[in-house]
Amino acid sequence: xxxxxxxxxxxxxxxxxxxxxxxxxxxxxxxxxxxxxxxxxxxxxxxxxxxxxxxxxxxxxxxxxxxxxxxxxxxxxxxxxxxxxxxxxxxxxxxxxxxxxxxxxxxxxxxxxxxxxxxxxxxxxxxxxxxxxxxxxxxxxxxxxxxxxxxxxxxxxxxxxxxxxxxxxxxxxxxxxxxxxxxxxxxxxxxxxxxxxxxxxxxxxxxxxxxxxxxxxxxxxxxxxxxxxxxxxxxxxxxxxxxxxxxxxxxxxxxxxxxxxxxxxxxxxxxxxxxxxxxxxxxxxxxxxxx
Length: 291
Description:
By secondary structure, the chain is of the alpha/beta class. Helices cover 44% and strands 11% of the residues. α1 packs parallel to α10 (248-263) and α2 crosses α10 (248-263). It is globular, with a radius of gyration of 22 Å.
């Protein structure tokens, strides 16, 4: 297998979505990719246990991508070896009426991970500068002062939200949350093939929605807004990684390896054993063995 340098995925400097790869030839079979992912997933599981014991950091994983980019299956495969109590997955769809009674970040705040735990956002707060930008009528549901119709939405709202998101993430980072953001980058042709698969396979028909085709017609707009969003919100505290995602097995491996390597940069280790326990381990062991 060709060496995977996860730094190649990290957004440093100006990001051009047209120049970002949607696939990489690793010269390996699907079985080899699956085997490597299994190994890395187990390593992540061990690190999760250590992080839980350390109780200093939490981890927030944000997954973004066009429809069919493979977010659901990636979550299933990358985190399958985790202790289920140590990771929570949230899928952010259309806001509920209760959520709309708060600011747009509120529902993300209440889903943040506790210390020692992971949270995976399947779509995230970034929907508010991606989907809402393509469909600005979504902003009207937020019932913001001075905005009664789409024409009232100020052109500055998107840059304001970039700033708000950067401040949100900086605050989290300064308080012990490690934030890693992944853009699963697929080609338009690959999306076409995946949508056709949903239609051609009866067991996958339920995944298809006519709205998928409506959003596909706005492909160029989404690409523009993804590029703009990533360029405005890729920070030291909360980096973006553009993951080639035309091949789902490769994308899962790239994300898992990136998470593992990024977390290894932090001082995450088990706490010291209580002195009394350490001094009497042999005695405790003998007591149990003699029962």
